[in-house]
Amino acid sequence: MKTLVLNSGSSSIKYSLFDLNGHNLLVSGLIEKIGEESSRHRFRLHNDAGNSDNNDAGITIADHRQGLQAIFTLLSERQAIARAEELFCIGHRVVHGGEHFRQPVIIDAEVIAQIREMIPLAPLHNPANLLGIEQTIEQLPQVPQVAVFDTAFHQTLPPHAFHYAVPADWHKHYRVRRYGFHGTSHHYVAKQAAAYLGRELNKLNLITLHLGNGASATAIEQGRSIDTSMGLTPLEGLMMGTRCGDIDPALPFYLQRSGQLSAVEIETALNKHSGLKGVCGENDMRSVHRKAENGEQAAQLALQMYAYRIKKYLGAYYAVLGHVDAIVFTGGIGENDAWLREQCCANLSALGIDIDTDKNAHIDNDCAAINAGDQPVAVLVIKTDEELEIALQAVECVSQPTESHDHNPA
Ligand code: ADP
What the protein does (predicted)? Predict the structure, then answer.
């Protein structure tokens, strides 16, 4: 049973082809800089032994239509998919599902209209996701297509967690509330944590920390997201590569009143020139570490701030949950940065959280426990796989009886 996952951005298309009989990744690829002369199509063919080759198709891609054509041609030439019928379904990543989509859904004209309606909430992402969806339907109309939303996992937040303390009619009129993002990753690692611990997810309380270029923390109670650090947009919460995370909401108005910066300049700075980059000039965590090791104080400060803010959320979510079975680190930073994991969990033994330094330094599995043996709270490092999770959710959605394709069941 082959399933294709497409993540269509404004100038890129990322894709993965899975054979879900064995959860095997067959082909993965990325088309970048669509519309530019320097556009590239790079892909990897993965064999049974888990090895892969890097390839560059060396062609220019003018638009999304051509990009998708290039992907389908490649998959057919390399015999990854000989006929369209071999594809069980296609899963599309969609960033914003608003309050309407609580679960994946088979795409039809109504779903497309609703994703379009969500564009004001995700002006950069939803139009690009839609472009990929519409072009794929045009090229492969016979294959079921499923939308999997980044926001869906967080639709279980209770009202006291998703409302902001702002005028009540802003929710009704402007859809202002906490939505949360990275839901596919938080959900995937939560399921992996349950499997690793040999427990049922709906009996587990977890704090999951997705730390990549974007970063977010989620409190999971009995398998359901009950709070998450990103909000109306992915700007709120933890400090990130280039995003500021939590700030005083008065800060933009203060700067605007100073007359030196426009609203657009402030918004751009908070999204693209803040976070690690804003504090020390680097947004890649490995570069920040190198600078810090070379004695640069700004980089040392950036690292301290980054870890400190995660620790504040750990404390807050611990209090919210009351009992925590496991803390999960994931994302490029969460999976690889032993120093950071140690900082985040330092001096928390009163809460039952303590890391084994040796285990923390030697992670050689996609899922590893790094807590000291005698501690009640498991600390896990789990490799996220958003593409696989989208594929699994898409297959589950298509395999369900048709009446449960309701977008927003009570
Ligand atoms: P994205 O959010 O784009 O998917 P990733 O999850 O790949 O990003 O995370 C990218 C981040 O992970 C970068 O800041 C990168 O420096 C960091 N990272 C990758 N490897 C390491 C490492 N060994 N130590 C610390 N940080 C790392």
Answer: Catalyzes the formation of acetyl phosphate from acetate and ATP. Can also catalyze the reverse reaction.
